[in-house]
Amino acid sequence: MTRPRTALVTGANRGIGRAVATELYRRNLRVVVTARDPETALATAADIGPGVCPHVLDVTDPTGVMLLRKELEHVDVLVCNAGVLLDARTDPLTAPLDLVDRTLRVNLIGSWRLAQAFVPSMIRRGWGRVVLISSGTTAEFGGALFAGAPGYSLSKSALNGLTTMLAAQCEGTGVLVNAVNPGRVRTDMMPSGHVTPEQAARFIADVATLPAGGPNGSFLTEKR
Ligand SMILES: NC(=O)c1ccc[n+]([C@@H]2O[C@H](COP(=O)([O-])OP(=O)(O)OC[C@H]3O[C@@H](n4cnc5c(N)ncnc54)[C@H](OP(=O)(O)O)[C@@H]3O)[C@@H](O)[C@H]2O)c1
């Protein structure tokens, strides 16, 4: 079966990322699953289906991102999903700043690095969809910062800011950049979540395959 568009999903070995990769494959995209561990990347790709491409990627590794960009002919859909929640149950006065630093390097800079690597060629090709997986713990777009995981909350707020800046730069190019709040999704990060990864993935896949004229620079939450 011909799969005309290629999607790259970060942190695709488990949780929301794996469900998104599976859903995009189901929607007839060629899917590149990336994971930090090579064996997990291979196993995930094999589980999803024939033709899924496994790649090793730590989003904090600039060389790894550069090599991946060189290896892939092009990427049409980029889902920046890889994320960490390291400072839960702390507060702004006690949060260990090394954890905050790691959080920002994965959640914000990692996504930014992927966007810098793949968005310019989307613009040149005149089509692209970028989805940045945000959170309900953010201040922008009418939400409220969550002081109980301050580094995480700030990282996702900054990611929303990055979304608006990238979207403005992509305006009129055929590339749409949006942030998604997936809700509380039952994964290793949020075992008490009430949304299944598959439910969240359907909405994220909708945003990753928006038609021309769809929203750009928006913070999108599924109405449930
Ligand atoms: N679950 C929720 O309720 C919820 C709510 C709002 C937003 N989110 C966001 O949704 C995204 C996915 O979360 P999840 O719930 O699916 O969490 P998860 O099950 O903990 O999965 C996190 C994924 O990110 C990967 N990752 C972590 N650090 C990485 C790095 N440096 N480079 C590449 N991959 C890395 C993990 O890979 P390893 O297996 O190698 O660690 C894993 O694949 C995150 O951005 C999270 O902040 C989740």
Q: How would you describe what is shown here?
A:
- This protein has a single domain (6-221), classed as 3-Layer(aba) Sandwich (Rossmann fold).
- Helices cover 42% and strands 15% of the residues.
- It has six helices and seven strands, in the order βαβαβαβαβαβαβ.
- A seven-stranded parallel sheet has the order 3-2-1-4-5-6-7, with helices on both faces.
- The longest helix is centred in the middle third of the chain and has 29 residues, at 97-125.
- The protein is globular.
- The site of NADP nicotinamide-adenine-dinucleotide phosphate has 30 residues, from helix 1 and helix 4.
In short:
With 224 residues, the chain is α/β, with parallel strands linked by helices.
Query: What spatial form do the alpha-carbon principal axes imply?
Result: globular
Spans where pLDDT lies below 50 across 5 or more residues = none
Q: Biggest sheet, open or closed, and with what strands and sense?
A: 7 strands, parallel
Discrete helix count:
6
Helix amount: 40-55%
Distance between the termini: 33 Å
